[in-house]
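Bumping with the actual sequence this time:
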Amino acid sequence: MIECVQFLLLKLAKPAVVESITFGKYEKMHVCNVKKFVVYGGLNEENMIELLERFAPQVYGDNV
């Protein structure tokens, strides 16, 4: 299985404090489900620092 790195760049109009990040996922194991995510922050793309690195829980079934 080939894993590719994908990313999403969110540009805010002005500096802000982000309090939560929510990802949706399929109710069964699926290749599109987020496994790991890293959050970077900065005032411009050239000066970003890592703020958070987490592994998404792989929970499936009725409690999702």
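The tokens above came from a reply further down the thread. The first strand starts at residue 36 and ends at 41.
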